[in-house]
Structures are given as C-alpha cells and as structure tokens.
C-alpha cells in the first residue's frame, strides 16, 4: 500500500498546507513576463495573495523571482512574521492596500 502524500510546506511562511486549506501555484517569473511553463511553487492562498498585493508583475520578474528574494521584501517579511503565528488553516483578507499594476 503506498504511503499517503505528506502535507506540503509553504516555502514562503514554512507552515504546512493542509489539503482542506486554499492553496495556489505561484509562478516565480510571472506568466505575463515570460514565466509561462516556468518554475512554480505551491503556497497558501493567503501567502500568494500577499505577494501580488505587495509587488507588481515587473518587480516580481526583475527582482523577486526566488523565494529568498520574496522573503527579503520588507512588506512580505512583516507579513511572514505575522502569519507564522497563525494556524496552517488560517485565512483572511490581505491586510493593507493592493498595489497598482
């Protein structure tokens, strides 16, 4: 009998992503900037929304195309510190104002 798949870990916040929690794939290089078919990472949906609320597609492609780079962004670093204190199934509206595209 095959082993059940382990619970994935969100690479942004390092919390588990339970199967019943909203999750989404993030293109490290945005599709609109040439990343279609490129590397993706599975994230909590709340983490994914925060990335796109904090950064434009151009900024993501130019300066934030890795998880380490995303973690270094001041707004995302604050968000990560905040969300790490929440349970893996936590979900809410993205705090703060969304950036213009």
UniProtKB/TrEMBL annotation:
<protein>
    <recommendedName>
        <fullName>HNH endonuclease</fullName>
    </recommendedName>
</protein>
